[in-house]
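Record type: ASSEMBLY
Status: queued
Input:
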Amino acid sequence: MRYFTAWRVMHPEKPIEMKQFISFVRKEFHHIFRDRTTMAILLILPVLMLLLFGYAINTEVKNSKIAVYDPSNDTYTRAIIEKMQASEYFSVVKMLKNEQEMSEQFKSGEVKMVIAFSENFHENLLHSGDAQIALIADATDPNSAKSVVNYATAIIAGYQMESQQLQQIPFQIDTQIKLLYNPQMKGAYNFVPGVMGMILMLICAMMTSISIAREKEMGTMEVLLVSPVKPAMLIIAKAIPYFFISLINLTTILLISVFILGVPVAGSLLWLLVLSLVYIFVNLSLGLVISSVVNNQQTALLISGMVLMLPVIMLSGMMFPVENMPVFFQWISQLIPAKWYIIGVKKIMIKGLGFSAIMPQLAVLSGMAVLLIAISIKKFKYRLE
Amino acid sequence: MISCKNISKKYKKVQALSDISFEVKPGEIFGLIGPDGAGKTTLFRILTTLILADEGVASVDGLDVVNDYKLIRERVGYMPGRFSLYQDLSVEENLNFFATVFNTTVEENYELVRDIYQQIEPFKTRKAGKLSGGMKQKLALSCALIHKPTVLFLDEPTTGVDPVSRKEFWGMLKNLQQQGITILVSTPYMDEASLCDRIALIQKGRLLTIDSPGKIADGFKKTLLSVSAENMSLLLTDLRTIPEVENCYAFGDSHHITLKNRTSRYEQEHSDSKGKKDNEIEFIINDLKVTLEAKNHLNIIIKEIKPGIEDCFMELSKNNL
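Status: finished
Output:
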C-alpha cells in the first residue's frame, strides 16, 4: 500500500488515465452487448461449429459399401468375407461374377471398394503361399479410400492371425496394429483442437480488427485522435472485451468436447489455459495489426476472413497433415499461429503431455505475440494518413 | 489564435490546397465559405493535426500543428463534417464518454454546454443514432465543448440541418463567442457568411478573399440586377445570349446579372444630358425588358439589388478559373 501511494505521488496522471481506460472498456462492452445479432453469433458460433464437425462432417468410415469378387469361393475366402460383413466398417452389397463387373461397379459409384481374391485361394495359401487378395478402392475421396483400405487390411491380418494359431501355417508375418491416444480413431480428437484454433482466431483477430475499422468508418476515430487519449490505451481497450468473449468460447468448446463429444482433457487443464491465453494474445494483436492497415469494416472482414481463415483451415494441419505438403507450404505453415496452437492443444488434450512437451509451441506463440503487439503499436497512425 | 502561412496540400493528383494564408484573431467567429470540394475539410484536418500539409506552417493557440500536436489535441474542440459520435450509445453516454476522454467530467464544465445540452436533455436516454439532424448536431457540439476548448473547429456543422435548427445553431455560436472561445467554422451556405465576424472565401483550394462580410459586399463595384420571368430556365439561356450581359447566375427564385460597359451605351445616347445614376439604371432596366419581351418572356420583373456574399463569390471565382 505504501508503495502504491508513493507510485501515485510519482504518477499523478495515472488515476485519470485509469478512469479513461475504464470508460473506454465500458464503451466497448456497450458496443458488443447492444449489437444483439453479433453477440449471439459470437457465442453460438463455436457451439455450431463443434456440432457441425462432430456430427455432420464425419471423416470416420462406417458401413462402407463393398463388393467382393471371389472366384475360389472356399472356406478361407468365405470366412474373410464374413469377417468383413460382421465389422461395423463394411457392408458387402454385391458378389461379382467376373472381373468386368468390377469397373462397372466403380463407374456407377455404388461401392467404395472391391475385394478380389485370387483363384484357388485356400489351396495356394497352404501349398505355395502365393494366395493374393486385391483391395481396389475408389480414391476419388482419397481420405476415405485410405481408411477403407486400412480397415480391410487390418481385418484380413486379424483373420490371418487367428487361422495361424489354428492351423500352424509357418510362414505368416505377424502384424500388430495399435492406435495410440485415439484407439477408436475418433474424428473429434482431431477437429476439437482445430475448431479451438479457428474460433479463437476468428473472434479475436476478426472482431478486433472490425471494431477498430468501424471507428475509422464512422468518423469517431477522427474525434478520438483530436483528444489527449493515448493510442496504446485505445488499442488495449478495444482488445479487452474480445479477450473475455474468447475466454467464454474456450469454456464452451471444452465443455462440449468433454461432455458431448467425449474428448477428454488428458493433460493439465492449467497448461491448456496458458497455451490458449498466449494464442488469444497472438490473435488479438494480429487483429490490431490488420486494423492499422485497413480503413473500413468490409476490408477488415475480408482480410481476416480470407487471409487468415483460409491458411488456418488449409495449412494448420487441422484438415490435412502438414507433413504431406510441398516444402514451400510447409514453410508457410510455420508462420501460422494456429498450427502451433493446434499441435500444442493436441499434445495436452489428447496425448496428456505436460509443460515440457509444449515448450516449443509456447515459445513460438509468445514470440509471435510480442512481435505483433510491437508492430501494432508502432503502426498505429497518430494522424489520418 | 489560428495562423496559416502558405499552406499547400496535394492528394495524388488533386491540388487540395494551394498557398493558403490567414489569421484568426482570439475571440473571433471566422467563417470558411466555399462550395463542396473547395478544400475546407482538408484545411480543418491540417489545423486539427489530423493530416500534414505538404508545405507551409500553421499554428493553433501559439502551438505548431506538426511538433506540438499532442498539446493542440488537448485544448481544441473539433466537430467533423459528418456526425461522428457513437450511434449505439445514448446521448448521456456519449457526453460522459467524451468528458472522460478529455480528462474532465460533465459536471465540471456543465455551465458551458448547459444552454445547448438542455435542449437535448429530455432525450438523454435515446441512442444517438435515433436523434434528428438538429439534435445530433447539438449533441456533437456539446461533446466538442465538454472540455472547455480554447478554439473550436466546426466543419460544416449546419449541412443537412433544417433552417430553424441552423438559425438556433448560429445563436449558440454567438453565445460561445461571448464566453471567449475562438471559432473557426466552415459552411457551403453563403447566407451564413454574414453571421461571421470575418470570412475567407475559398474555391478549388485557393482563398479568394479574406475580410468582414460587409466589406466583401462593399467591394462589389458593379450594378447587380435580379431578373425573373415566367419561364426561368429559358430566361437563363436567353439572358446569356444578350451581348450586354456580362454574367448571369441562377439564384433561387431569380437570376442575378451584371452588365458589361453599362455606361458607354447610355452615354452615347444621352451624350447631351448629364443624367443621374438612377436614370441610368432605369434606362438599363427598360432596355433589358424590351429585349426580353422581344423574346416572348412574360411577367418580367427586373430590379437593382444589393450584392450578397454569394454574388461576390461568383464574381471573385471567375478570376480563379
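Annotation: The domain at 64-180 of chain A is CATH 3.40.1710.10 (abc type-2 transporter like fold).
Annotation: Chain A touches chain B through 24 residues (CB under 8 Å).
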